[in-house]
Structures are given as structure tokens and as C-alpha cells.
């Protein structure tokens, strides 16, 4: 594999310092933007408006309070029947791991920032209950009462804690919770960046506090003087181009546990096992990336591959960008009987740190909390937990009389007695934390496989622990610094596997992204005049027409010149360099193309993309067989983004809506009828060109939440019309997802679809609540089962039918972030049997200042290959 890699120029200490400073500044900007947005939510936005957009839950009451692992107070909230007609929550965006501010339900928004705000991490959530984990030192950064040195900060995500103020635990009788920024993640990333800089001998902390006018020469001198103390592992060095990654030849140590793996999955596993430092697994949509990761973990654990010493159990840290990604891996590890047999036989412990996104029994039993509770040492903490809970029950306000909304609950204990009881709680929690640390340490000592999100991996539970393997799924959705949190737990000689798809959505970044360079400098090549043309870096179409033999002969001086405009290349350019690396794959001289570490211009530049840009496609293994889409849906992204390397597995290549067992043709129609074939076609396009179905902007009262968002009510009508046709033919609501790139459109879709009466054919009989049999010929669809969301929320998931509203339609032909091909790639690769696109081809294809031809090419492809419905005739 080594012979296929490009060889990057090792970065100087000065360049490393500039890279670290750029990352630090980008993180600071992102933190500032999140702080500003949280402040707006808490102080400027009406609570009911927040709830309407899923960012708040109002009128909650405390159902229970108990003590969890780590002495966290677990507060369970519900909608009291005295104040709500239904106990179920309205639609919301709260997920496990999110941070929420706990406020008095009656407080004015402007007042909520004037005093300390209690915050909690969402520990568990279902349709009628939400549990928040409240750790010590609950005040958010910057809230009145916090010390300037930040000593009262706490790690909200992991439950790390320091001090507690007993009176701060008082909760109002009626509560509202608001989703806010979790600043502890930034604290952790800053600490990680500093640790990494120290390991590489880079004086980051000193440079950030020094005079901003110090010269580059002084910075380099300081950096060089500190390099002697560097203790970077070989893995760290290879990820920065300071050392070349290497491989050795090896095969699977054991026969595959999963007999259904395809050749590309097996090759990816072999490749990861053969790497001496790190490898990338490139998993395009539906190619079974998680399946390959699970098999890799099984091979490692069952064969003890990569252990630090002979006879010492191998230790694996498995991380993901989201709780859902981690849960998917965990479920496939512990949910297979053959896997459990191996774990039991070899005594392999598996522990999930953090809060699972799904409440599944076999996942819960694998969590650190559950294992601590069930461990032999658990009795150490049970007694003291019960004592704390007993006192907390006394301090909880009594409920107001049912139906009397004006009467507030009163605490059972008041005055000095109440203060004394809080002091008791504080002392008991100190003792509980001390005992809990012993139990937690004992459980983790037995865990060979630990699973956590990238951020949670930096918690106190894993402090000072090292691992032989670090495996990160969804690596292209995680900030680079977030990936370094688990990587810093790799011992010398450990291996890293990054799995993801750099052609799908990057990490969510809220701060302004610096625009990438538009052009590459003219190349001097006597052998080809074409190489002197200026090309757009982000345009795959232009790249395809370039002369790569000339590019391969580009001199080192010329490559340096391209990056010496003061910032040495853009972060976005790195992502595009990853695409360019694909094109160099077949060029024999491609390893002669010098590359180097480039400064990030955006946090969207991931470690996966940066490594791919530095070393070229030889650093990754491509999964090329997809199991999701039929060939028609797959065709365009395959050709435009994946160079035609994807192929559909026989299990999905020819699947159609008409194959669904629940489908029933409309009235007397047959499958051969042209109208039915068009309605049920794999790709359907409703083109609104010329209809003047223009987009709209948010109402003035919603501009705080949706300042740059758009909606299109005409496209919503088309969505409803298509859904009516599908449901009339027996398609289930649970088989459909409706997507839009804009949150304002999703909100409009939600309010319209949830209130619409969809009718489906009724087969058979049913019994009413009175016992009378119904023999109706139709039934009402439960619209709550129709999944609605933004494109970003759907990455990594799939549905039989996906309806996509593109929203943008205007006389100026502006498309905004719809021009980002990675977002559109995610949107058009979620459907299994039918993809329905609704949009204005005239606006989209003719959009100005596009970074590439992806959007116009897709409009042309739809016109040529999709079933195009004339919108004027439809409405």
C-alpha cells in the first residue's frame, strides 16, 4: 500500500504552530457564535415560539428526582395533567446528550439571563417523559455568579463535577426547558488542542498569550526550542505528515463472523488490520460501513490482534460523531448471539459510556451506569444514594391542586432547616462521588471494548487510560479536534481507523465559513497547453477534463507557490484535494506530487479529508457495493461523485414501490397502466419552472430563529398531493420521509401535514371501542408516522420513499446553500424505492456563482431520466 501513497512535505515547527493557532481561532469563533445564539434563545425569543420550532418544552412538572452514577441528580420531567390535555410532548428536537436550560415556566425571556440558570444534559427521552442529568456546578459559562477563572465549570456531557451550591438545586414547580449550546464541548476541545500541541512540541499556549505582533522568526525559534520536549506518538506524527504511514501484509486472523460480507468490505477490514498507523474506510451511502466496522472489532477482539503485549487483552476504543452512530455499532455487537458467545468465552467486557439514544434493553445493560449498578461493588453506593434521594424528596415542592393553575407548590421543608438539609445533600454527594469513582474504575478495568461519542471519550472516566485501537465512525461528521480527543488515548504503537464519506455532509458549523479559493494557479508545463488553463478547484466536471499527467509533473516549487498566499490553502480546498486525490489514483507518477499540511479555513475540514488530501486515495479502502437504492436512484450520484465505482447489490438493484406487499393499485388500475407506472416510478420530478411558485421568508416574529431560512407553500401543496396519491395506493406513513434543506420549510411541512386528513384503502374489518364492527372501505392515515426533517437530520438513514422539497424559486436565480453538493448528495441517496424531487429547475439550473456544475447537471439528469410531472396540470 505504501507505494501508492503521496509523500507530504514534513511541516516545519512554524507551520505546525500556525495550524494550531488557526484551529484555536476557529473554535473560538464557533463558541462565540453558539453563545450568541443561546443568548438570543434565552432572552429575545418568546417561549411559545421556541416550542413551536422544537427548541423548548413548556409547562413541565417534576415527576421524580433520583441519584445516578457520578452523583448526578436525574430529574424526570413530564406534562402534568392539571395543565395539559395530553401527556405527550409536542414535536421537539431534544436528543440524548443535548444541553438544556431549566427555567421557571412563568419567567419572562429577558429575565432568564439576569440570574444563574440551572442546566442539565438530556439523559433519556421518550414521547411523554424527559430525564435531565444535573451535575455539580450547574451554571453555564458567563452566567452571573461564576468565577472568572472558570473553576465552577463542569463537563455537562460526562457528568464531571467540582463544587455544588445546595440552594441552586431548587427547581420551580412549573418548568420550561430550552435547548442551549453545550460550551463544555469547546472547553474539552481546547484542552485537547493544547495537549496535542504539547505532544508535538508546539508552544500553542505561549503563542496565544504572547504579543500578537511577534515575528514569524521569533515564533519559529520558540517552537524549535520546545521541540526537544515533544513526545508525539508515531500515529500523531503520521497524521501530520511528519512520518509516512506504513503497512504490513496480513489476512483476516479468523474466518469472518458475518458470512454475508462482500469482497470490498473484507478488503477494507484486511486493510485496517494491515496498517501500522492508520487507515481510512470510505463508505458511500448504503455500502455497509457500520457492518464492516463491527466485523473489524470482532476480528480484533477474538484474535487479540494489536495487543500491547503477548497475553495481555487488547483494548479497543470505539467512537462516533453522534450517540446514534455509537448505538448502531453497539447494537450490532451485542445483538448477535454469535458475538455474545465469543465475548462470554473470552471474557470480553463491553461498556458504553454516555447516554444511549435509543432505549433498547440490550443497549441499556451495556452502559456504564447499568454495569456500575449491577456490579459486585454496587452496594458501596446504593445506600448513600437512597439517603440522598430521601432528603431530595423532602425538598421537592408539593404539587399544586389539580386544575388550579394559579396555586404554586410549596416545599415541605423551609428556612434554616431547608438550608441544613441541602448541606447534608452536599456532603453525602461528595462521599457518593468518592465511592462511585472506585466502582466506575473497576467496571472499566474489565472492559476491553469501550464505546462513546468523541466528546464523551474525554471524560474523567477514561482519564489516564490507553487503548490499542481507536476506531471512529462518522469521522467526516466530526470536527478534527473532536477526533483527537479519543486519538490522544492511543498508546505508542496503537492503530487508528477512520470511517466515513467525505462526499456527504461535513460537521455542522454555525460560524461564518471563509470562502475557498476559486482557482488554482496556472501551471507551467511545456508538454500540454491545456495545463495553463485556470480551473475551479471545487468542480469535479472541470477536474475530469484536466491533464493529470501534466499535474503529476508539477514541480515542488510550483506547488509551494500555490499555497504561499499568506494562508497556505483553504480548509475547503483540503476537502477538494481529497476529491482530486481520487483522480490521481490511476496516474503512475502521482506519488511524486508533493503535498503538505495546509491551514484550515473552516472547521468543516475534517481529519478524514485532510489525511486523504495529504496522502491520496492509497490511504483509504472504498466500499463499492451498496445495499439501499435501486439503480435508477443511485445513477446520478454514482456518476457525478463516485466516478461510477458504485454498484447496486442484487437485493436492491431492481426494487420498486410496486414490490411492497402493502401496495394496492388505485381502483381498477393495473400495474401496466401508464399513470400508475409514472406515479410509482423510481425517480419523479415535479418541475415548477414558469409557475412563479416563489419562496417566502420568515415572518418578522420568527426572524430570530429563522433569519436566513426559506419556505415555499406551493411546494408543500405538491408534497401533500403526492402523499395523497401514495397513501391511496396503500403505502404506509412509516415508509415515507419528507425532507427539505431549510428549517422554515420543515416547520411549514409539519404544520400542514400533521393537520391534513390523509385517506388510505381499508381492507378487512375492525372493532370500535364500543365493540361494534366497522366495515368501512377506507381508513385515516396517522400523519404523525410520516417522518419530517431537514436534509442534515437524515444522514446515515433510509426510507422506502423520500420526498424532497428544494424550496428555492426566485426571479434572481439565487439558491443559497442548496449549491452545496454534499447536502444534495445526502438528500438524493436516502430513498430505497422512490425519490420524489420538487423544485424550480429554471432557478436551480440557472443559479449564479455556483461552485461547480453539480446542481445544473442534476437538473439535466432529472429532465432526461426521471418521470417529469407537469405541475400546472397537477394543481
TrEMBL record:
Record carries keyword Ubl conjugation: no
Alphabetical keyword list: ATP-binding, Cytoplasm, Helicase, Hydrolase, Nucleotide-binding, Nucleus
SUPFAM superfamilies: P-loop containing nucleoside triphosphate hydrolases
Ranges of compositional bias, category Low complexity: 529-543
Keyword Nucleotide-binding listed: yes
Compositionally biased region (Basic and acidic residues): 151-160
Residue stretches making up the DNA2/NAM7 helicase-like C-terminal domain: 603-841
Any GO CC annotation of this UniProt entry: cytoplasm
Compartment(s) of residence: Cytoplasm; Nucleus
Assigned EC number: 3.6.4.12
GO molecular function: 5'-3' DNA helicase activity; ATP binding; hydrolase activity; RNA binding
Region spans: Disordered: 139-168, 398-420, 514-575
Domain Helicase SMUBP-2/HCS1 1B as annotated: residue spans: 25-137
Superkingdom to which the source organism belongs: Eukaryota
Residue ranges occupied by any DNA2/NAM7 helicase helicase domain in the UniProt entry: 260-511
Composition bias type Acidic residues, residue spans: 564-575
Family, similarity comment: Belongs to the DNA2/NAM7 helicase family.
Protein name: DNA helicase
Origin species: Sporisorium graminicola
Amino acid at each position: 500500500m505504501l507505494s501508492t501513497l503521496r509523500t507530504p512535505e514534513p511541516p516545519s515547527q512554524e507551520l505546525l504552530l500556525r495550524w494550531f493557532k488557526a484551529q484555536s481561532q476557529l473554535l473560538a469563533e464557533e463558541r462565540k457564535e453558539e453563545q450568541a445564539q443561546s443568548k438570543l434563545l434565552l432572552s429575545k425569543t418568546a417561549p411559545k415560539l421556541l416550542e413551536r420550532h422544537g427548541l423548548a418544552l413548556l409547562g413541565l412538572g417534576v415527576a421524580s428526582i433520583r441519584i445516578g452514577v457520578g452523583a448526578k441528580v436525574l430529574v424526570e420531567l413530564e406534562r402534568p395533567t392539571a395543565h395539559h390535555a395530553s401527556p405527550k410532548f409536542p414535536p421537539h428536537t431534544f436528543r440524548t446528550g443535548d444541553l438544556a436550560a431549566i427555567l421557571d415556566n412563568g419567567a419572562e425571556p429577558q429575565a432568564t439571563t439576569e440570574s444563574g440558570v440551572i442546566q442539565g444534559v438530556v439523559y433519556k427521552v421518550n414521547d411523554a417523559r424527559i430525564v435531565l442529568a444535573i451535575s455539580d456546578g450547574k451554571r453555564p459559562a458567563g452566567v452571573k455568579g461564576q468565577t472568572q477563572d472558570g473553576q465552577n465549570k463542569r463537563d455537562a456531557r460526562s457528568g464531571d463535577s467540582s463544587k455544588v451550591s445546595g440552594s441552586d438545586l431548587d427547581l420551580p414547580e412549573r418548568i420550561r426547558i430550552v435547548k442551549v449550546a453545550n460550551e463544555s464541548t469547546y472547553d474539552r476541545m481546547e484542552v485537547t488542542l493544547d495537549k496535542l500541541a504539547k505532544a508535538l512540541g508546539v508552544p500553542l499556549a505561549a503563542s496565544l498569550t504572547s504579543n500578537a505582533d511577534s515575528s514569524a522568526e521569533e515564533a519559529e525559534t520558540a517552537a524549535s526550542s520546545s521541540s526537544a520536549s515533544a513526545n508525539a506518538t508515531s500515529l500523531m506524527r503520521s497524521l501530520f505528515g511528519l512520518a509516512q504511514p506504513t503497512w504490513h501484509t496480513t489476512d483476516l486472523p479468523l474466518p469472518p463472523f458475518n458470512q454475508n460480507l462482500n469482497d470490498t468490505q473484507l478488503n477494507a477490514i484486511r486493510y485496517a488490520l494491515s496498517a501500522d498507523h492508520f487507515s481510512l474506510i470510505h463508505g458511500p451511502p448504503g455500502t455497509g460501513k457500520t457492518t464492516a466496522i463491527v466485523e473489524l472489532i470482532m476480528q480484533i477482539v477474538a484474535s487479540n490482534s494489536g495487543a500491547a503485549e503477548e497475553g495481555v487483552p487488547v483494548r479497543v476504543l470505539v467512537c462516533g460523531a453522534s450517540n446514534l452512530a455509537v448505538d448502531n455499532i453497539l447494537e450490532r455487537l451485542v445483538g448477535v448471539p454469535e458475538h455474545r458467545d465469543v465475548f462470554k468465552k473470552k471474557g470480553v467486557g463491553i461498556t458504553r459510556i454516555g447516554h444511549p439514544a435509543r432505549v433498547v434493553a440490550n443497549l441499556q445493560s451495556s452502559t456504564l451506569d447499568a454495569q456500575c449498578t449491577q456490579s459486585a461493588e454496587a452496594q458501596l453506593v446504593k445506600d448513600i444514594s437512597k439517603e440522598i434521594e430521601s432528603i431530595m424528596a423532602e425538598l421537592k415542592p408539593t404539587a399544586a391542586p389539580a386544575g388550579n393553575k394559579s396555586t404554586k407548590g410549596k416545599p415541605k421543608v423551609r428556612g434554616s432547616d431547608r438550608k441544613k438539609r441541602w448541606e447534608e445533600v452536599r456532603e453525602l454527594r461528595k462521599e457518593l462521588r468518592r465511592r462511585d469513582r472506585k466502582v466506575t474504575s473497576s467496571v472499566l478495568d474489565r472492559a476491553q471494548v469501550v464505546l462513546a461519542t468523541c466528546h464523551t471519550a474525554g471524560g474523567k472516566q477514561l482519564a489516564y487510560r490507553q487503548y490499542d485501537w481507536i476506531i471512529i465512525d462518522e469521522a467526516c461528521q466530526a470536527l478534527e479536534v473532536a477526533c483527537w480527543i479519543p486519538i490522544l488515548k492511543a498508546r505508542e504503537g496503537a492503530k487508528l481507523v477512520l470511517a466515513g464519506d467525505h462526499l456527504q455532509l461535513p460537521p455542522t458549523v454555525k460560524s461564518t465559513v471563509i470562502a475557498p479559493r476559486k482557482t488554482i494557479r496556472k501551471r507551467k508545463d511545456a508538454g500540454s497547453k491545456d495545463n495553463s488553463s485556470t480551473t475551479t478547484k471545487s468542480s469535479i466536471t472541470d477536474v475530469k477534463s484536466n491533464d493529470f499527467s501534466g499535474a503529476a509533473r508539477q514541480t515542488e516549487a510550483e506547488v509551494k507557490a500555490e499555497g504561499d498566499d499568506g494562508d497556505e490553502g483553504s480548509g475547503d480546498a483540503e476537502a477538494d484535494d481529497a476529491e482530486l486525490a481520487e483522480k490521481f489514483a490511476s496516474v503512475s507518477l502521482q506519488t511524486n506530487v508533493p503535498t503538505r499540511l495546509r491551514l484550515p479555513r473552516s472547521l468543516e475540514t475534517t481529519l478524514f479529508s485532510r489525511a486523504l488530501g495529504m496522502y491520496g486515495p492509497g490511504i483509504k479502502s472504498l466500499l463499492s457495493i451498496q445495499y439501499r437504492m435501486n439503480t435508477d436512484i443511485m445513477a446520478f450520484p454514482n456518476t457525478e461523485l463516485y466516478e461510477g465505482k458504485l454498484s447496486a447489490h442484487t437485493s436492491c438493484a431492481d426494487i420498486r414501490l410496486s414490490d411492497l406487499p402493502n401496495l394496492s393499485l388505485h381502483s381498477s388500475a393495473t400495474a401496466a397502466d401508464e399513470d400508475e407506472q409514472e406515479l410509482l416510478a423510481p425517480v419523479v420530478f415535479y418541475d415548477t419552472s414558469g409557475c412563479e411558485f416563489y419562496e417566502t421568508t420568515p415572518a418578522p416574529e420568527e426572524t430570530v430563529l429563522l433569519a436566513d431560512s426559506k419556505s415555499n407553500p406551493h411546494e408543500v401543496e405538491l408534497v401533500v398531493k403526492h402523499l395523497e396519491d401514495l397513501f391511496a395506493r396503500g403505502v404506509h406513513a412509516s415508509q415515507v420521509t419528507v425532507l427539505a434543506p431549510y428549517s422554515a420549510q420543515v416547520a411549514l411541512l409539519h404544520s400542514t401535514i400533521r393537520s391534513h386528513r390523509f385517506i388510505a384503502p381499508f381492507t378487512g374489518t375492525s372493532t370500535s371501542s364500543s365493540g361494534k364492527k366497522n366495515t368501512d372501505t377506507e381508513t385515516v392515515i396517522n400523519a404523525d408516522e410520516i417522518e419530517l426533517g431537514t436534509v442534515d437530520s437524515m444522514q446515515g438513514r433510509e426510507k422506502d420513499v423520500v420526498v424532497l422539497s428544494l424550496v428555492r424559486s426566485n426571479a434572481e436565480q439565487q439558491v443559497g446553500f442548496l449549491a452545496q453538493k454534499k447536502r444534495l448528495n445526502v438528500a438524493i441517496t436516502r430513498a430505497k424505492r422512490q425519490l420524489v424531487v420538487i423544485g424550480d429547475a429554471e432557478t436551480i439550473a440557472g443559479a449564479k456563482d455556483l461552485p461547480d456544475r453539480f446542481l445544473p447537471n442534476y437538473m439535466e439528469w432529472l429532465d432526461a431520466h426521471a418521470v417529469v410531472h407537469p405541475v400546472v396540470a397537477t394543481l
